[in-house]
Amino acid sequence: MGLLRPKFLLGGGLFALALIGLLLTGFEEGAAYYQTVGELREMGARAEGRRLRVAGDVVPGTIASEGEGRVRFHIEHEGARLAVLYTGREPLPDTLVDRAQAVAEGRLLADGSFEADHVQAKCASKYDAAYDGAAGDGASPTRPPATPARQATDGP
Amino acid sequence: MHHLGNFSLMAVVVLTAYGALASFLGGRRRSAALVTSARRALIAAAGFSALSVASLLALFLADDFRFEYVASYSTSALPVAYKISALWAGNDGSLLLWTFLMLGFAATAVAVRRRDELIPQVTTTLSLAVLFFAWLNLTVCNPFGQLAEITAAGPIPFVPADGNGLNPLLQHPIMAIHPPVLYIGYVGFVVPFAFCIAALWTRRLDAAWTRNTRRWTLVAWFFLGSGILLGGRWAYVELGWGGYWGWDPVENAALMPWLTGTAFLHSVMIQERKGMLKVWNAALVIATYLLAVFGTFLTRSGIVSSVHAFASSDFAWRFMAFIVVAAAVSAALLISRLKDLRSENELDSVVSRESGFLFNNLLLLAACFAVLWGTLFPVLSEAVQGEQITVGAPFFNRVNVPLGLALLLMTGVGPLLAWRRSSLDSLRRNFVLPGAVGIATFLACLAFGMRHPYALVCFGLSGFVVTTIATEFHRGVRARRAHRGGSYTGALADLFRRNSRRYGGYVVHLGIVVLFIGFAGNAFNRDVIADLNPGENTRIGPWSITLQDIPAGETPVYEWLGAQLLLSKHEEPVGIYQPRRQFDRATGQATSEVRRHATFREDIYLVFSGMTEDGRATIHVYRNPLVRWVWIGGFIMFLGTLLTLLPDRRRRTASRGRLPALAAPAT
Known about the structure:
The complex is a heterodimer of chains A (156) and B (667). Chain A has 156 residues and is of the alpha+beta class. Chain A has a single domain (31-140), classed as CATH 2.40.50.140. Chain A is 27% helix and 31% strand. Chain B has 667 residues and is an alpha+beta fold. In chain B, helix 1 (2-29) packs antiparallel against helix 2. The two termini of chain B are 42 Å apart. At the A-B interface, helix 1, strand 1 and strand 3 of A face helix 3, helix 5, strand 1, helix 7 and helix 9 of B.
């Protein structure tokens, strides 16, 4: 079969090697560990210096703008809390409001705070919030609204 | 109305189940009557599916908030156009639309190609594919569910005073049409898939099935690509982060089937011409369809975008099961037919059109693999290591930019290679001029101070490819005129008439080049963030942006705060722009209304990010060179695809000779 001749094998092999090389170097640049605030605390010192994505809910009243696009806020998850300083270039998503589900991407600093250069946020649904208050235990009487077809608020 | 909707959905399920069974038996027993009845069942199912969509639409237009789905995505104050588009704002309704569109394709296919000898098996495959989604729609993702409050006495109906409202980001004309366009692209691949399965099933494995589904594949591919670009356009004008592509899982989900579909559109030419790559093509069509289904699954389940959505989503495992079963059946079928798929020819030379296509396929699949790998990495790493590791834009860019540039190179090289084997002499003759133009473009960019390596390569390659396309056209016209005489433009039009596929394809390639020029602009994006008091200004390059005023206002739907900005270039006023922040009353969500000063050279993209605590307006200015060329490139691709869909005079006469064989009754 024509495709199994040395020239083609050599070419295919080189191509595969180049692709693997690209995948590996790209991975080094782009990889980030995805955790909740609680899981981050459990990691302890291992977390320092790694690129991380940390998920938690925005603590109400903690969003404070420092100007020039720098914004501080706190996120929490199951009792664990993390202070985030956003220093990224992109404007923060409009959905970053009190109680929003947020994912901050960046690095943990030595003082235990987090410097993020990228933040995603998704609003907690209005119905969920209303019923959560009424039902007390967070049980919603209806199914939670379905995921939007395109999670627009998740933003790139 | 919801009874009608539910009844219609049930009818779709019953009819497609019947259609699958009847066409299967009809194929077995060679009963034309059974097959015809199965085809008609599928067409009737399309009618009922339309009825179910219409019922849901009626509920939206009537503001019937008894229904959870309507209450979740609409309000009474929403403009009518967005009440319509709210239909596909959520999972259940968009699946209803998905089923309807898929049935639309399926019904049209079995109606138009009713005399095709593969039609019994095609009908079975299509019916089964639709049956799954209709069943899902009826049971797990039913949009006709009513709200209820659970009390001690049991559930009682619950009607909210008003609906939750449509996410303000989705209240945009592009976002109203982007999902249906994308869906048409996704579901359209079901037709080539069904023909491929039918061909494997019946062992009729010549190029007939690829030839007969070429237009279907092109239409699906065209809508998928347009849907992707519309999505990018929407992100750019609406999301306010200054870009149009972020390697978001949702975007990747649409890109993957587009890449394999593109590979198929190319490699199928080798099968038609040389009887080679039959296994490969069948695998590509199957992969494209499965990736399309997987893509919508990825979007709906939120499996990648949020930490634990997978477990909570009660339709996810059904979806996954469908994909796994479809993949397993297709693979088994393909493997059992390997003997029948033997190549009729061998690859003769490394330097040939065939190898060029093969390399193009390799690149497209490598890109698809990289995107799939990166998108699924969080899920895979969690399964293997217990830690979720995501890979972001740097990963995707690092891998896909070189692959994309190599593809761009192939766009120019491919057409210059001869079938079978290119002689050194013809290579030299074909490559001298385009190569020289490419190198000259590269050097000119270098001389003008451009230093970004990828951008330099991209512009150099663009020069090369554009020249090869121009040469091809010129050659074709010259040959035509030598043969028939006439004017240059007349001969050019004649080229499209005679070989729409080839020359339309070149126009699509030209669109790709323009698209890449737009992409290369990304290398030079700059931005500045400034907190301004009225009267103060900020600068970016030759541009100056002065804050004049911070007006406020309101509409029934939202309140807004604006930043009135005077844009000047070299101190000459260009215009006044007013980016805004809007606060949606229904959802309580704030959105940025971006303003753009768009030129062919660059976009000045103005965002009002908010107010600082001491009352200054935070203004974010992006200077994005060449963005407009992305949209122009997309438009050229759109035109090129339309041209390739033109009836091909040469092909028509050729197929007329073959018609008796094709028209032989299948029974």
